[in-house]
Amino acid sequence: MSEIPPGPVPGELLEIAVRVAREAAATARRMRDEAIGDVQTKSTDTDVVTAADKAVERQVVDALRAVRPDDGVLGEEYGDNAAAVPGAVRWIVDPIDGTVNYLYGLPQYAVSLAAEVDGEVVAGVVRNAATGDEWTATRGGGAWRAGRRLSCSTEAVLGQALIGTGFGYDPRRRAHQGQVFAQMITRVRDIRRMGAASLDLCLAAEGRLDAFFEKGLNPWDYAAGGLIASEAGMVVTGLNGAPAGPEMVLLAPPALFEALHELLTELDASGGP
Protein backbone atom coordinates (compact mmCIF):
# COMPACT_ATOMS: atom_id res chain seq x y z
CA MET A 1 0.00 0.00 0.00
CA SER A 2 1.56 3.27 -1.10
CA GLU A 3 1.84 6.16 1.32
CA ILE A 4 -0.27 9.26 0.79
CA PRO A 5 2.09 12.15 0.13
CA PRO A 6 1.97 14.92 2.72
CA GLY A 7 0.03 18.05 1.90
CA PRO A 8 1.69 21.37 1.23
CA VAL A 9 3.22 23.10 4.24
CA PRO A 10 1.54 26.48 4.93
CA GLY A 11 4.87 28.12 5.73
CA GLU A 12 6.27 27.10 2.37
CA LEU A 13 3.18 28.40 0.59
CA LEU A 14 3.49 31.67 2.48
CA GLU A 15 7.10 32.08 1.36
CA ILE A 16 5.96 31.78 -2.25
CA ALA A 17 3.02 34.13 -1.66
CA VAL A 18 5.18 36.82 -0.06
CA ARG A 19 7.75 36.77 -2.85
CA VAL A 20 5.12 36.87 -5.58
CA ALA A 21 3.07 39.58 -3.84
CA ARG A 22 6.11 41.80 -3.32
CA GLU A 23 7.06 41.58 -6.99
CA ALA A 24 3.46 42.23 -8.03
CA ALA A 25 3.16 45.23 -5.71
CA ALA A 26 6.33 46.71 -7.20
CA THR A 27 4.86 46.33 -10.67
CA ALA A 28 1.56 47.91 -9.64
CA ARG A 29 3.30 50.93 -8.18
CA ARG A 30 5.63 51.29 -11.17
CA MET A 31 2.77 51.03 -13.66
CA ARG A 32 0.52 53.53 -11.96
CA ASP A 33 1.48 56.57 -14.00
CA GLU A 34 1.90 54.82 -17.33
CA ALA A 35 -1.24 52.67 -17.14
CA ILE A 36 -3.64 54.98 -15.42
CA GLY A 37 -4.94 56.37 -18.69
CA ASP A 38 -6.17 52.93 -19.81
CA VAL A 39 -9.29 52.63 -17.66
CA GLN A 40 -12.29 50.41 -18.37
CA THR A 41 -15.37 49.53 -16.35
CA LYS A 42 -16.74 46.24 -15.07
CA SER A 43 -20.12 45.86 -13.35
CA THR A 44 -21.08 49.56 -13.44
CA ASP A 45 -19.70 52.86 -14.71
CA THR A 46 -18.04 53.45 -11.32
CA ASP A 47 -16.48 49.96 -11.06
CA VAL A 48 -13.15 50.54 -12.77
CA VAL A 49 -10.33 48.28 -13.89
CA THR A 50 -7.00 49.50 -15.21
CA ALA A 51 -4.45 47.89 -17.50
CA ALA A 52 -2.32 47.47 -14.40
CA ASP A 53 -4.95 45.23 -12.72
CA LYS A 54 -4.77 42.85 -15.66
CA ALA A 55 -1.00 43.00 -16.04
CA VAL A 56 -0.35 42.44 -12.34
CA GLU A 57 -2.71 39.47 -12.17
CA ARG A 58 -1.06 37.93 -15.21
CA GLN A 59 2.33 38.41 -13.56
CA VAL A 60 1.09 36.70 -10.39
CA VAL A 61 -0.36 33.75 -12.30
CA ASP A 62 2.83 33.31 -14.33
CA ALA A 63 5.00 33.48 -11.20
CA LEU A 64 2.87 30.88 -9.40
CA ARG A 65 2.83 28.56 -12.40
CA ALA A 66 6.61 28.75 -12.63
CA VAL A 67 7.01 27.18 -9.18
CA ARG A 68 3.72 25.25 -8.75
CA PRO A 69 2.38 24.47 -12.24
CA ASP A 70 -0.38 22.12 -11.08
CA ASP A 71 -2.08 24.52 -8.68
CA GLY A 72 -5.37 26.25 -9.41
CA VAL A 73 -5.78 30.02 -9.44
CA LEU A 74 -8.87 32.10 -8.69
CA GLY A 75 -8.28 35.67 -9.86
CA GLU A 76 -10.45 38.76 -9.98
CA GLU A 77 -9.69 39.61 -13.60
CA TYR A 78 -9.26 36.25 -15.32
CA GLY A 79 -11.63 33.94 -13.45
CA ASP A 80 -11.05 30.49 -12.00
CA ASN A 81 -8.58 27.83 -13.04
CA ALA A 82 -9.04 25.60 -10.01
CA ALA A 83 -7.61 22.15 -9.38
CA ALA A 84 -10.37 19.88 -8.06
CA VAL A 85 -8.07 17.13 -6.73
CA PRO A 86 -8.31 16.69 -2.93
CA GLY A 87 -5.34 18.27 -1.23
CA ALA A 88 -4.56 20.48 -4.22
CA VAL A 89 -3.71 24.14 -3.72
CA ARG A 90 -5.81 26.96 -5.10
CA TRP A 91 -4.36 30.46 -5.04
CA ILE A 92 -6.77 33.38 -4.62
CA VAL A 93 -5.49 36.70 -5.92
CA ASP A 94 -6.66 40.29 -6.04
CA PRO A 95 -4.01 42.05 -8.13
CA ILE A 96 -4.96 45.57 -7.06
CA ASP A 97 -7.54 45.81 -4.29
CA GLY A 98 -8.64 49.43 -4.15
CA THR A 99 -8.52 50.26 -7.86
CA VAL A 100 -10.38 53.55 -7.41
CA ASN A 101 -7.78 54.61 -4.82
CA TYR A 102 -5.13 53.53 -7.32
CA LEU A 103 -6.81 55.62 -10.01
CA TYR A 104 -6.82 58.71 -7.78
CA GLY A 105 -3.36 58.21 -6.29
CA LEU A 106 -4.64 57.51 -2.77
CA PRO A 107 -2.16 55.30 -0.85
CA GLN A 108 -4.66 52.56 -0.01
CA TYR A 109 -4.31 49.84 -2.63
CA ALA A 110 -2.92 46.37 -2.18
CA VAL A 111 -1.95 43.04 -3.65
CA SER A 112 -3.76 40.22 -1.82
CA LEU A 113 -2.69 36.60 -2.28
CA ALA A 114 -3.90 33.54 -0.37
CA ALA A 115 -3.33 29.80 -0.63
CA GLU A 116 -6.34 27.55 -0.08
CA VAL A 117 -6.30 23.77 0.45
CA ASP A 118 -9.55 21.78 0.42
CA GLY A 119 -11.60 24.94 0.85
CA GLU A 120 -9.59 26.30 3.79
CA VAL A 121 -7.22 29.25 3.47
CA VAL A 122 -3.91 28.19 5.03
CA ALA A 123 -1.59 31.07 4.12
CA GLY A 124 -2.04 34.67 3.05
CA VAL A 125 -0.30 37.97 2.47
CA VAL A 126 -1.64 41.48 1.90
CA ARG A 127 0.85 44.11 0.78
CA ASN A 128 0.02 47.79 0.49
CA ALA A 129 1.68 48.58 -2.82
CA ALA A 130 1.77 52.31 -2.10
CA THR A 131 3.47 52.15 1.31
CA GLY A 132 5.16 48.76 1.47
CA ASP A 133 3.26 47.72 4.62
CA GLU A 134 2.79 43.97 4.63
CA TRP A 135 0.65 41.58 6.70
CA THR A 136 1.00 37.79 6.70
CA ALA A 137 -0.54 34.75 8.35
CA THR A 138 -0.53 30.97 8.27
CA ARG A 139 -3.30 28.79 9.66
CA GLY A 140 -2.39 28.19 13.31
CA GLY A 141 0.78 30.25 13.03
CA GLY A 142 -0.52 33.69 13.94
CA ALA A 143 -0.75 36.99 12.06
CA TRP A 144 2.26 39.24 11.64
CA ARG A 145 3.42 42.65 10.42
CA ALA A 146 7.02 43.84 10.44
CA GLY A 147 8.10 41.05 12.78
CA ARG A 148 5.37 41.76 15.33
CA ARG A 149 2.63 39.26 16.11
CA LEU A 150 -0.77 40.89 15.83
CA SER A 151 -3.63 40.96 18.31
CA CYS A 152 -7.00 42.47 17.55
CA SER A 153 -8.86 45.09 19.56
CA THR A 154 -10.21 44.21 22.98
CA GLU A 155 -13.08 46.72 22.72
CA ALA A 156 -16.29 45.32 24.20
CA VAL A 157 -18.64 48.32 24.03
CA LEU A 158 -20.33 48.88 20.67
CA GLY A 159 -20.80 52.59 21.31
CA GLN A 160 -17.02 52.97 21.63
CA ALA A 161 -16.13 50.91 18.55
CA LEU A 162 -14.55 52.24 15.35
CA ILE A 163 -16.08 50.18 12.54
CA GLY A 164 -14.78 49.72 9.01
CA THR A 165 -17.03 49.03 6.04
CA GLY A 166 -17.33 49.43 2.29
CA PHE A 167 -19.98 49.93 -0.39
CA GLY A 168 -20.83 48.05 -3.56
CA TYR A 169 -20.92 49.60 -7.01
CA ASP A 170 -24.53 48.77 -7.89
CA PRO A 171 -26.63 51.88 -7.09
CA ARG A 172 -29.42 49.79 -5.59
CA ARG A 173 -27.02 48.02 -3.25
CA ARG A 174 -25.43 51.32 -2.30
CA ALA A 175 -28.85 52.71 -1.41
CA HIS A 176 -29.48 49.85 1.00
CA GLN A 177 -25.98 50.06 2.44
CA GLY A 178 -26.48 53.79 2.91
CA GLN A 179 -29.60 53.14 4.96
CA VAL A 180 -27.67 50.71 7.16
CA PHE A 181 -24.88 53.26 7.53
CA ALA A 182 -27.31 56.04 8.53
CA GLN A 183 -28.88 53.92 11.26
CA MET A 184 -25.57 52.60 12.55
CA ILE A 185 -23.59 55.85 12.74
CA THR A 186 -25.30 57.02 15.94
CA ARG A 187 -24.73 53.69 17.70
CA VAL A 188 -20.96 53.32 17.32
CA ARG A 189 -17.96 55.58 17.88
CA ASP A 190 -17.55 56.17 14.16
CA ILE A 191 -17.37 54.42 10.79
CA ARG A 192 -14.51 54.37 8.29
CA ARG A 193 -14.68 53.60 4.57
CA MET A 194 -11.19 53.51 3.05
CA GLY A 195 -11.81 51.66 -0.19
CA ALA A 196 -9.73 48.48 0.01
CA ALA A 197 -11.30 45.62 1.97
CA SER A 198 -8.11 43.57 2.22
CA LEU A 199 -6.37 46.47 3.97
CA ASP A 200 -9.39 47.10 6.20
CA LEU A 201 -9.23 43.50 7.41
CA CYS A 202 -5.53 43.88 8.17
CA LEU A 203 -6.10 47.13 10.04
CA ALA A 204 -8.72 45.36 12.12
CA ALA A 205 -6.28 42.51 12.78
CA GLU A 206 -3.90 44.89 14.51
CA GLY A 207 -6.56 46.94 16.30
CA ARG A 208 -6.51 50.07 14.16
CA LEU A 209 -10.17 49.30 13.47
CA ASP A 210 -12.24 47.59 16.14
CA ALA A 211 -14.37 45.63 13.66
CA PHE A 212 -15.40 45.45 10.01
CA PHE A 213 -18.42 44.39 7.96
CA GLU A 214 -19.41 44.48 4.31
CA LYS A 215 -21.93 42.85 2.01
CA GLY A 216 -20.90 41.91 -1.52
CA LEU A 217 -17.25 40.96 -1.08
CA ASN A 218 -15.72 38.28 -3.29
CA PRO A 219 -13.26 35.61 -2.16
CA TRP A 220 -10.27 37.55 -3.49
CA ASP A 221 -11.31 40.53 -1.35
CA TYR A 222 -11.15 38.68 1.96
CA ALA A 223 -9.29 35.36 1.59
CA ALA A 224 -5.89 36.59 2.79
CA GLY A 225 -7.18 39.39 5.01
CA GLY A 226 -9.75 37.12 6.62
CA LEU A 227 -7.07 34.63 7.63
CA ILE A 228 -4.90 37.43 9.00
CA ALA A 229 -7.81 38.76 11.06
CA SER A 230 -8.74 35.30 12.32
CA GLU A 231 -5.16 34.55 13.34
CA ALA A 232 -5.11 37.86 15.22
CA GLY A 233 -8.01 36.64 17.35
CA MET A 234 -11.05 38.00 15.52
CA VAL A 235 -14.29 36.16 14.87
CA VAL A 236 -14.65 36.03 11.06
CA THR A 237 -18.07 34.96 9.83
CA GLY A 238 -21.33 35.91 8.14
CA LEU A 239 -24.65 36.55 9.84
CA ASN A 240 -26.92 34.07 11.61
CA GLY A 241 -24.54 31.15 11.46
CA ALA A 242 -23.52 31.54 7.83
CA PRO A 243 -19.84 31.57 6.92
CA ALA A 244 -18.19 34.70 5.60
CA GLY A 245 -19.17 35.17 1.98
CA PRO A 246 -20.86 37.47 -0.54
CA GLU A 247 -23.90 38.01 1.71
CA MET A 248 -21.76 39.31 4.57
CA VAL A 249 -18.23 39.38 5.86
CA LEU A 250 -18.20 40.31 9.54
CA LEU A 251 -15.15 40.35 11.76
CA ALA A 252 -15.04 41.50 15.35
CA PRO A 253 -13.22 40.77 18.59
CA PRO A 254 -14.98 38.08 20.64
CA ALA A 255 -16.08 40.62 23.27
CA LEU A 256 -17.71 42.84 20.62
CA PHE A 257 -19.02 40.21 18.25
CA GLU A 258 -22.45 39.51 19.76
CA ALA A 259 -23.45 43.18 20.01
CA LEU A 260 -22.31 44.02 16.48
CA HIS A 261 -23.89 40.88 15.04
CA GLU A 262 -27.18 41.75 16.73
CA LEU A 263 -27.09 45.29 15.35
CA LEU A 264 -26.29 44.18 11.80
CA THR A 265 -29.08 41.62 11.94
CA GLU A 266 -31.51 44.25 13.22
CA LEU A 267 -30.55 46.61 10.39
CA ASP A 268 -30.79 43.85 7.75
CA ALA A 269 -27.23 44.58 6.68
CA SER A 270 -27.09 41.45 4.53
CA GLY A 271 -30.38 42.31 2.81
CA GLY A 272 -31.12 44.37 -0.25
CA PRO A 273 -29.89 43.59 -3.76
TrEMBL record:
Its EC number is 3.1.3.25. It is an enzyme of class 3 (hydrolase). CDD domains: IMPase. It catalyses: a myo-inositol phosphate + H2O = myo-inositol + phosphate. Its cofactor is Mg(2+). InterPro entries: IMPase, Inositol_monoP_metal-BS, Inositol_monophosphatase-like. Keywords: Hydrolase, Magnesium, Metal-binding. The keyword Magnesium applies. The keyword Cell inner membrane does not apply. Belongs to the inositol monophosphatase superfamily. This is Inositol-1-monophosphatase. It comes from Actinoplanes palleronii.
